[in-house]
Amino acid sequence: MLLLGIPLAVAVNRLIEEEATQQLASHAKSLLGEVEYARIQDQPIDEQQLERKYSQLYIQIYAKGTPPQVITVGTEPPESQKMTADAQSENGVYVAVSRDKTGVEREVRAWLFLILGLAAAALAVAVGLAIVQSRRLTLPLSDLAMIAERLGSGDARPSKHRYGIQELDRVAEVLDRSATRISDLLAREREFATDASHQLRTPLTGLTMRLEEIVAAADEPGIVKEEGEAAIVQAERLTAVIDELLATARRQRQAQAESVKLDALLDQQFIEWGPAFRRAGRQLRLAGTRGLQALGTGGGISQVISTLLENSLEHGGGTVTVTTSAKDKSIVIEVADQGRGIPEDLAPRIFERNVSGAGGTGLGLPLARALAAADGGRLELVRPRPAAFAFFLREVGDTGRNRVVRGPA
To answer: How far apart are CA 166 and CA 247, in angstroms?
Structure first.
């Protein structure tokens, strides 16, 4: 405003003064012509007419002659406020025209006030635009700070806010991607905690049963010793389950796959679950081919079989038959009971998380399928009524290069 306003004010002041001076000079030349014309025509100069025509001017006319002629028209302005322009002819006529500078100064002030008003308006517009622009920048920054604070407090929902400013939009996109990653990490942590609690419950249940058997047979040292040894095995299995959970969390299960003798593993499962089935008045039966070996992890296979037996105990009925066989380059362990089976509307979704038809947690079968997939196998429902599940495992020597096995986590 200063760089443009001050030069403009000086220029306007000079322009108005020059215009007033030129106007006086024009009046002086015009009046000189009129006086010369009147002398040529031998006509007297009409002072009243000059006063009417140049009402706001002070006129002085001097003409040579005998005697010389001097004419004044109008009121002479103060010397300090006087502007004068003159003209002279070769015939000895001299004309001076004067006016008061007050009107010129008034016009200059009016223009200066106009310039000041425009400058103030421009300044107000600039301040307004600056405020709008600053709010346009600061509000998104405050919003981004709130989003970052929300992420730090554990609320990992993407905001999807965009502000029309490229740099801020890039920051918002980065925060949204971070929120998505944090949300996935939190979801995996929650699933891991849920899976861990569910997988630890089964060996703890077996350990509890063994301890109950020990308490019930406190007067029979042989049974106490046998059940104590079984309890130690259960504790070791509990430790193995914890190791398996940690390995799964680190995604190292495939690298730990080894040859597992199924007979010993299934015999151990029958020893663990036999008392529970006997108390329920039901039987466990092992059938099929003996001496099979499969690729996997002992803890993972045991956990899958244990989940299937527990599921049959709680939701099935009659005798539970565990059948082992070798089919199509796969080792198959089938667990079937004689109960009512799985409803038709529930069968297609039986491996989905939180899906249960009998008031359970809905986590056992999804976790069992995830463990089977982690060992390079798969768990399938082969018959809904009565229920029969098949656990397919890799044969020993199968590298898995031409085999794609997937299971939900």
So the answer is: 43
Bond into 386 cis (ω within 30)? yes
Tell me the two tokens of residue 77: 């302005």
Structure tokens at 248: 């799964």
The pLDDT tens digits for 134-189 are 887 787 888 878 877 877 776 777 777 787 778 878 888 888 888 777 777 677 66
Question: What is the spatial distance between Cα 404 and Cα 113, in angstroms, rounded to a whole number?
Answer: 86
Cβ–Cβ < 8 Å for 323, 287: yes
| Closest of 135, 133, 65, 57 to residue 98, by C-alpha | 57
What is the β-pairing status of strands 93-100 and 82-88?
antiparallel
List, in sequence order, the alpha helices (H) in 218-319: 221-249, 262-279, 298-315
DSSP letter, residue 334: E
Give the model confidence (pLDDT) of 330-379 as tens digits: 899 999 999 888 888 888 888 887 666 555 556 778 888 888 888 888 89
Would you say how long the chain is, in residues?
409
Q: Number of C-alpha atoms within 13 angstroms, CB side, residue 383? A: 11
Q: Smallest Cα–Cα separation from 326: which of 300, 299, 293, 303?
A: 293
For residue 389, what are the contacts with CB-CB under 8 A and spacing of at least 6? 308, 334, 335, 336, 379, 380, 381, 382
pLDDT digits (tens, 9 = 90+) for 378-389: 899 999 889 999
Question: Can you tell me the distance from the alpha carbon of 107 to that of 114, in angstroms, rounded to the nearest whole number?
Answer: 11
* Beta strand 284-288 pairing with 320-327: parallel
The answer for residues whose C-beta is within 8 angstroms of residue 10's C-beta and 6 or more apart is none
pLDDT at 196 (0 to 100) = 64
pLDDT, tens digit, 9 for 90 and up, residues 66-92: 677 888 888 888 888 888 999 888 888
* pLDDT greater than 50 at residue 406: no
**227/211 Cα distance (integer angstroms):** 7
| 381 neighbors 389 (Cβ within 8 angstroms) | yes
pTM for the structure as a whole: 0.45
Instruction: Average the pLDDT over 243-251 and give the result.
Output: 58
Rg of the chain over all Cα atoms, to the nearest angstrom: 54
Residue pair 207/214 in contact by the 8 Å Cβ criterion: no
Place of tokens 């009402």: 55
Q: Whose CA is closest to 265, among 227, 301, 309, 231? A: 301
